[in-house]
Design a protein that fits this description.
four-stranded parallel β-sheet; 5 helices; globular
Length: about 100
């Protein structure tokens, strides 16, 4: 089972896209856990992830998150995907980061 961690400023704004990513994964038959957290939790929560997706509003923290979780691939969800809450495209980004 893959562990996809979403991070934003407070962990709340990613809840809709989190649900949409999970729906997309279920439709594909991909077993994964998707969770949303504040970017301030990266050092503790992020280390157990298979990939971390940052909301565009915290994209500035990509280098910091990558440094805190050096073994975990980190990406920033593009604003167009985030704004549309497109779970299919966000899942595709996560799968690419995980090499799937």
């Amino acid at each position: 089972m893959k562990n996809i961690v979403l991070m934003c400023a407070g962990g709340m704004s990613t809840s809709i896209i989190m649900k949409n990513i999970k729906k997309a994964a279920d439709a594909e038959g991909l077993e994964c856990e998707v969770s949303a957290h504040a970017v301030s939790e990266a050092a503790t929560i992020g280390r157990n992830a298979d990939c971390i997706l940052l909301g565009p509003q915290v994209g500035y923290a990509k280098d910091e998150v990558s440094a805190a979780c050096p073994e975990v691939p980190v990406g920033v969800i593009p604003m167009a995907i985030y704004g549309m809450m497109d779970g299919v495209k966000a899942l595709a980004q996560a799968k690419e980061l995980m090499g799937l």
